[in-house]
UniProtKB/TrEMBL annotation:
It comes from Shewanella amazonensis (strain ATCC BAA-1098 / SB2B). PANTHER family: BINDING OXIDOREDUCTASE, PUTATIVE (AFU_ORTHOLOGUE AFUA_2G08260)-RELATED. GO terms for molecular function: FMN binding; oxidoreductase activity. This is Oxidoreductase, FAD/FMN-binding. Transmembrane segments: none annotated. Keywords: Flavoprotein, Oxidoreductase. Pfam families: Oxidored_FMN. InterPro entries: Aldolase_TIM (IPR013785), NADH_flavin_oxidoreductase (IPR051799), OxRdtase_FMN_N (IPR001155). It comes from the Bacteria. Residues 16-330 form the NADH:flavin oxidoreductase/NADH oxidase N-terminal domain.
Length: 368
C-alpha cells in the first residue's frame, strides 16, 4: 500500500473529494480531427486511464479560440459537437469514481501559422524571424476581452458537458504564460509591467468562471516554475509571485510543470521542489508533474509537501499506474511498444505523434 498516494484528497473550497492523489497529467495526443473534434480513440485512451484508477484526469491542451491552434490534431471545446464528446469523457470518468478536467489552452506566440492561417498573437508584437516567420501580432484591448470571454465560455461548456472543472494552461510559453513573461510582455497598459498587471488576464478568467459556475466546479492553473530548454523570461521569483497572487483568488490548485521534480532550481543549490513548496505551502493545493515515474518518486514528492502528483510519460504505458504501484506490479518503462499504445486506445495519428518524442515509442510494425 502506498500510504500517501492512496489517501484521498479533499478540495476544501469545492467540497469535492478525490479517491487518491494520482493525477493523469495533460498529454497532447494529436488524435482529434483537423477541426478539433475529439476522436473515439482519444476518448478510449482517457477511459483506459479512468478505469486504471487515476483519481483525477486532465484532458490534453484544448483550444478555446480560433487563432490559438498548435497541433493538427489538437482537440477544441468551442462547439456543441465538441462539448458532446467531452460529455463522454465525463461519464466514463465518473463511472470509475474519478474526476475529469479539461486543460484550456491558447497557443499564443507558439500557435502554428500553418494551422491558423494567421500570425500568432501575443501580449507584445515580435518582428518576423526564424522563430516567428510571420512575426507576432500584439493583442489589443478588445481582443484581450474576447479571449477572456473565450476561456470562460469554454469553461461553461466543460461544465455543461458534465466535467468537474478546468485547468488553465499558463505554462510552457503559450498565451497565458506569455502574459506572465516580462520578456514577451512589454505592455505599458494594465495588462503589462507589474506582476499584478501581467497576471491580470489569468485572474480575470478565473473571476469570470467563478461568476458563471457553481463553486464545486474546480479551477486550477498550470505554471512553469522557471525557464527550461531554450525559453527565456520565466524566472522562479516571478512565477512564485504569480502563484501567490493566484492562491489569493478563488482557485482550487496550482499545478507546477516542473520538467524534473527532483532538479535543483536554475542557478541555485536548492531543490526546485522545496523552493516552490516553501513559498506556497498552506496557501493553495499544490500539484506537481515532472519525472514522477514510479510509486517511490510519487511518495517523495508527496512527503516533501505536495498534495497531488501528476503522471505523464509513465501513464502512456501504464494507464493502470496507481494499481501497479500500489500492488507492486512492475511498470512498463519507455520506450513503449506501439502495439501497447494501440491497446490503450491510441490510433495511428497518436502513435505517429508520440513517436516523434525521443525515446518514447518503439514502432514495431513496418508500414505497408
Ligand atoms: C506526449 C506529451 C504530451 C504533452 N502534452 C501536454 C499538454 O497537452 N499540456 C501540458 O500542460 N503538458 C503536456 N505535456 C507535459 C506533461 O503534462 C508533463 O508535465 C511532462 O511530460 C513531465 O511529466 P513526466 O516526466 O511524468 O512525463 C506533455 C508531455 C508529453 C510527453
Amino acid at each position: 500500500m502506498r500510504q500517501a498516494l492512496n489517501s484521498g484528497f479533499q478540495f476544501a473550497k469545492a467540497g469535492v473529494r478525490l479517491k487518491n492523489r494520482s493525477v493523469l497529467a495533460p498529454l497532447t495526443h494529436n488524435m482529434s480531427d483537423s477541426h478539433g473534434n475529439p476522436s473515439p480513440a482519444e476518448l478510449d485512451w482517457l477511459e483506459h486511464c479512468a478505469n486504471g484508477g487515476f483519481g483525477l484526469l486532465i484532458a490534453a491542451a484544448t483550444q478555446v479560440w480560433p487563432g490559438g491552434r498548435c497541433w493538427q490534431g489538437q482537440p477544441a471545446l468551442m462547439t456543441d459537437l465538441q462539448q458532446q464528446a467531452y460529455s463522454r469523457f465525463a461519464e466514463a470518468t465518473r463511472a470509475h469514481g474519478a474526476l475529469a478536467l479539461v486543460q484550456l489552452h491558447h497557443g499564443g506566440v507558439r500557435a502554428a501559422p500553418a494551422l491558423n492561417g494567421t500570425a500568432p498573437v501575443g501580449p507584445s508584437s515580435e518582428a518576423p524571424d526564424s522563430r516567428y516567420p510571420l512575426g507576432v501580432t500584439e493583442l489589443d484591448e478588445d481582443a484581450i476581452q474576447q479571449l477572456i470571454g473565450a476561456f470562460v465560455t469554454a469553461a461553461e461548456r466543460a461544465y455543461r458537458a458534465g466535467l468537474d472543472g478546468v485547468e488553465l494552461h499558463a505554462a510552457h510559453y503559450y498565451l497565458l504564460c506569455n502574459f506572465l513573461n516580462p520578456v514577451l510582455n512589454r505592455r505599458t497598459d494594465r495588462w503589462g509591467g507589474s506582476v499584478e498587471n501581467r497576471t491580470r488576464i489569468l485572474i480575470e478568467i478565473i473571476r469570470g468562471i467563478r461568476q458563471q459556475l457553481p463553486r464545486q466546479f474546480l479551477v486550477g492553473v498550470r505554471l512553469s516554475p522557471e525557464n527550461y530548454a531554450n525559453v527565456v523570461g520565466i524566472e522562479l521569483q516571478n512565477q512564485l509571485a504569480v502563484a501567490n497572487l493566484l492562491a489569493a483568488e478563488d482557485i482550487d490548485y496550482v499545478h507546477f510543470s516542473m520538467g524534473d521534480s527532483f532538479k535543483l532550481a536554475n542557478g541555485k543549490n536548492t531543490a526546485l521542489l522545496s523552493e516552490v513548496i516553501n513559498a506556497l505551502t498552506g496557501k493553495t493545493t499544490l500539484m506537481m508533474a515532472g519525472n514522477i515515474r514510479d510509486g517511490e518518486a510519487a511518495e517523495r514528492v508527496l512527503s516533501a509537501g505536495a498534495d497531488l502528483v501528476a503522471i505523464g510519460t509513465s501513464a502512456l504505458g501504464n494507464p493502470d499506474w496507481i494499481y501497479k504501484v500500489t500492488n507492486g506490479v512492475p511498470l512498463v518503462t519507455p520506450p513503449f511498444a506501439d502495439t501497447l499504445l494501440q491497446a490503450h486506445g491510441f490510433n495511428e495519428a497518436g502513435i505517429t505523434y508520440l513517436g516523434a518524442v525521443p525515446g518514447l515509442v518503439v514502432i514495431s510494425k513496418p508500414k505497408t
